[in-house]
Amino acid sequence: MSNFVAEFMIVYETMTLRELLQSVDAEAYASIPLYDELLKTKPEYGSSNRIKVKVLNGEIAVSNVHVGSLGDIVACPIDVAPDLQVTKMQLLDAILKEMSHEGFTETDADDFWDDMMDLRKAKNIR
Questions:
Q1: Is the pLDDT reported for residue 3 higher than 50?
Q2: Alpha carbons 64 and 13: distance in angstroms, whole number
Q3: How far is CA 63 from each of CA 5, 35, 49, 124, rounded to the nearest angstrom?
Q4: Integer Cα distance of 88 and 90 in angstroms
Q5: DSSP per residue over the chain, as a string?
Q6: CA 91 to CA 72: how far, in whole Å?
Q7: Cα–Cα distance for residue pair 9/11, rounded to 1 Å
Q8: What is the pTM of this model?
Q9: What are the backbone angles phi and psi of residue 54, rounded to the nearest 5°?
């Protein structure tokens, strides 16, 4: 089997985020602290969440990576939409981008937590 075909096998096999992290070339991610942190994180297996990956508006969309501890997240299986043909590195890039709060600014995060901690607003949000 060629390397090209093996790269696309992610679509057909179920793997956890930890297995995906271990299956790519570590040198390509040497400058990304989140990769290193996730690789060092011990899986906790306390979550039944699944990381979802699909195409949305022509872009790779990743969900369910902000729920639980890092230990929970690295243990999550990754569900890739059957129509999405991506390499393992493209998949990991999309997951790391989503986990690094790309598009969710520090101000957005502060506003979210301010609202969650305000008991008057929290009831409406939850």
A1: no
A2: 19
A3: 26, 18, 10, 23
A4: 5
A5: --HHHHHHGGGTS-EEHHHHHHHS-GGGGTT-HHHHHHHHSPP-------EEEEEETTEEEEES-SSS-HHHHHTSEEEE-TT----HHHHHHHHHHHHTTTT--HHHHHHHHHHHH-HHHHHHH-
A6: 19
A7: 5
A8: 0.70
A9: -150, 175
Q: Which structure tokens are listed for 111?
A: 């506003």
Measured from the Cβ of residue 43, the count of other Cβ atoms closer than 10 Å reads 17
Q: What does the alpha-carbon distance between residue 86 and residue 126 come to, in Å, rounded to a whole number?
A: 35
Between 25 and 123, residue with greater pLDDT: 25
Structure tokens at 72: 């929970």
Residues paired with 77 in a beta bridge? 16
CB 78 within 8 A of CB 16: yes
Task: Dump pLDDT digits (tens) for 43-71.
Answer: 887 667 889 999 888 889 998 887 778 88
Contact indicator for 71, 41 with CB cutoff of 8 Å: yes
At residue 121, what is the residue type? K
Place of tokens 């590195």: 89
